[in-house]
Amino acid sequence: MDLLKKRILEDGTVLPGNVLKVDNFLNHQVDAKLMDQIGAEFARLFKDEGVTKVVTVESSGIAPALTTAIHMGVPLIFARKHKSLTLTDNLYTASVYSYTKQVSNDISIDKRFLKPNDRILIIDDFLANGQAVQGLLEIAKLANVKVEGVGIVIEKSFQKGHTMIEKSGVRLESLARIASLDNQKVTFVD
Ligand code: G4P
Ligand code: NA
Ligand code: NA
């Protein structure tokens, strides 16, 4: 998606540790118009997959997932991050390890919101090591729902997530694919 790549080059900054900071249009301040265009693009890409629900993880995934859900005319579900203390009988739960923060967090979706005939599209803002997506794939398995695809706004193609999803056999569409962030410079795939 050229508009997105242009925006990353204009407004993204590369931090030490191969982190792309995009908090002026995606991760803190949100460019609502751009999110709408991103949602329209995901809806176009996955229009023939019979998607019944868009699924993401709070919080940064919600903006692009919501606009996708609007364009597809289906509900959005965001998995919640929580510490497993209270009753979890009514939840589908998976553990997600964050390499950047070096902590594991549980993510959960209430059983009422995923039913066996659902066909879900997973949307997230970033794909790095793929732990968040893997957690959602686990939840989909627990809920016995079909995953029709994964849509990512910004993929760091040099990290493990891309290969992990490819191996799982699920269709992956990333709107911007970053080959490298070396020398504080964004280089796209192709
Ligand atoms: P992953 O395995 O799910 O791909 O992510 P990883 O543990 O590597 O990264 C942890 C968090 O950092 C994730 O957000 C992920 O989206 C985000 N992240 C990874 N690489 C980058 C990057 O280069 N730039 C930015 N801006 N974010 C990155 P999270 O903490 O789970 O979600 P949220 O609380 O922000 O919604
Ligand atoms: Na994030
Ligand atoms: Na995210």
UniProtKB/TrEMBL annotation:
CC annotations in GO: cytoplasm
Binding site for 5-phospho-alpha-D-ribose 1-diphosphate: A128, N129, G130, Q131, A132
Major subcellular site: cytoplasm
SUPFAM superfamilies recorded: PRTase-like (SSF53271)
InterPro entries for this protein: PRTase-like (IPR029057), PRTase_dom (IPR000836), Pur/Pyrimidine_PRTase (IPR050118), Xanthine_PRibTrfase (IPR010079)
Residues covered by the Phosphoribosyltransferase domain: 42-154
Alphabetic keyword roster: Cytoplasm, Glycosyltransferase, Purine salvage, Transferase
Enzyme class: transferase
Pathway: Purine metabolism; XMP biosynthesis via salvage pathway; XMP from xanthine: step 1/1
Classification via PANTHER family: HYPOXANTHINE/GUANINE PHOSPHORIBOSYLTRANSFERASE, XANTHINE PHOSPHORIBOSYLTRANSFERASE
Family per similarity comment: Belongs to the purine/pyrimidine phosphoribosyltransferase family. Xpt subfamily.
Name under which the protein is recorded: Xanthine phosphoribosyltransferase
Organism listed in the record: Lentilactobacillus buchneri subsp. silagei CD034
Organism taxonomic ancestry: Bacteria, Bacillati, Bacillota, Bacilli, Lactobacillales
